[in-house]
Design brief:
With 412 residues, the chain is α+β, with helices and mostly antiparallel strands. It contains 13 helices and 14 strands. The protein has 3 domains: 131 residues, no CATH class; 62 residues, no CATH class; 168 residues, no CATH class. The protein has a 3-stranded antiparallel β-sheet. A 3-stranded antiparallel β-sheet has the order 13-12-14, with no helix packed on it. Strand 12 and strand 13 form a beta hairpin. Helix 4 crosses helix 6, helix 6 packs parallel to helix 8 and helix 9 packs across helix 10. It binds zinc ion (2 copies).
């Protein structure tokens, strides 16, 4: 079936594998063992690159279909014993390598690792290949330094930015409570800032393991969760939310680059959530030197002064999103014209929005709003107004000082 020449590289590889299989770790010094261990892994990564390229080529040619397999992936899975998911993962990487030829070249040359290529592959978002190609060199820079932690931060940031155009529904958060054998099972799923807040709270309230404490981490977290609920119930539902509860680090926005935002526990935060946080938070400026190390730290300043916030809360009374009546003390104060677009923190540029509607507006940059005579009007992407009745609250609501209309297109 094969020409003799074609079989040559594999025959050589088999001979090499025989030799390596004969290695006895017991006979190696510590130095030799570590050199062989890491050196072998590097070469195996290069073989991963070759295997992936061959698998992708087989898929393009439809190999295995003639023998009755449903797909080449199924055929590879059958022949190699890999799960279908593992084969699909390989084929996905093979596709990305065609989009990013420099990545493929460096992988095959052993300059970057298989996990690095997997991280870059995980950043791929449908219809955003052009942006991925534009970022290839930036992603390869930490990969070449073998700084996989920074690489993963960057690939996640890229993905968050690519997903932030508002055209894809964000996965929703949820908690379910169910009964199982007389016990209550709590299952929750969160992302973005909600995930950070919950992780931060549980971590803060979880007692450290004591010397004579043989409880598992899960048991200590359960105690923390109960304690959080007790504290929350004691404060009651009328308590104003304490702010800021959670710390994020972000860069100042510069032209052409989405600022990277990192939360302490859950890592990268998407650009829409960043804009929402910036609307209403305490901000501390940290100046960095040319090496990126903190040089001076400014004083924390709240976005809204206590007086301005009180005035806006008293004026609005509740979340101003059409149809929402969540009480104002539970809301964020949203900048109608965002701070980073020069919007000032004054009453005429601030409007109360509950967390749900605040997040919604920042995550949907194609929705627009106007803020006129203390009336927030919200328009869908097709230009139709969400609730076109401007007199919902009666004429008294417009008795305040006449204000200049402000139009905003949110661009995240
Ligand atoms: Zn906002
Ligand atoms: Zn609302």
């Amino acid at each position: 079936m094969y020409s003799e020449y074609h079989d040559e590289p594999l025959a050589e590889l088999r001979r090499l594998a025989d030799r390596l299989s004969g290695l006895d770790p017991a006979e190696l010094s510590d130095d030799e063992l570590s050199v062989d261990l890491i050196g072998l892994r590097r070469q195996l990564d290069r073989f991963d690159a070759v295997y992936t390229r061959l698998a992708r080529a087989a898929e393009c040619r439809g190999i295995g279909l003639e023998d009755g397999a449903r797909s080449t992936a199924g055929w590879i899975s059958w022949k190699t014993g890999r799960t279908p998911a593992a084969v699909h993962h390989t084929l996905k990487i093979g596709e990305v390598c065609e989009v990013l030829p420099r990545t493929a070249r460096l992988w095959a040359a052993g300059e970057i690792t298989t996990p690095a290529v997997e991280a870059i592959t995980a950043a791929r978002v449908a219809h955003a290949d052009e942006a991925l190609v534009a970022c290839e060199d930036d992603l390869l820079e930490p990969a070449l330094r073998r700084d996989h932690r920074i690489l993963r931060v960057m690939t996640r940031h890229f993905k968050e930015c690519a997903l932030a155009d508002g055209s894809r529904p964000a996965p929703t958060d949820g908690i379910t409570l169910s009964e199982l054998n007389g016990r209550t099972v709590v299952h929750g799923e969160f992302n973005g800032t909600a995930a950070e807040t919950i992780t931060h709270a549980i971590s803060t309230f979880t007692p450290p393991p004591g010397e004579h404490d043989d409880r598992t981490a899960a048991e200590r977290r359960a105690e923390a969760w109960t304690r959080i609920c007790e504290v929350a119930l004691a404060r009651g539902t009328d308590a104003e939310p304490a702010r800021p509860a959670v710390t994020y680090f972000t860069h100042r926005r510069t032209d052409g680059m989405q600022p990277l935002t990192i939360a302490g526990f859950t890592g990268v935060i998407g650009p829409a959530d960043r804009d929402r946080i910036l609307c209403d938070c305490d901000l501390t400026e940290i100046a960095v030197d040319e090496l990126g190390l903190p040089a001076s730290i400014g004083r924390a300043t709240g976005t809204w002064t206590a007086g301005t916030r009180r005035a806006i809360v008293a004026r609005d009374g509740h979340c101003r999103f059409p149809g929402c009546d969540l009480p104002a003390p539970w809301t964020d104060v949203h900048h109608v014209v965002h701070r980073e677009h020069g919007g000032p923190s004054i009453t005429t540029n601030g409007v109360c929005l509950c967390r749900r509607h605040h997040t919604f507006l920042h995550r949907h940059p194609d929705w627009t709003t106007t803020f006129e005579h203390q009336h927030l009007r919200v328009y869908r992407p097709d230009g139709t107004e969400l609730d076109p009745d401007p007199w919902r609250d009666g004429p008294d609501a417009h008795a305040g000082t006449a204000m200049n209309p402000v139009t905003l297109t949110l661009t995240a």
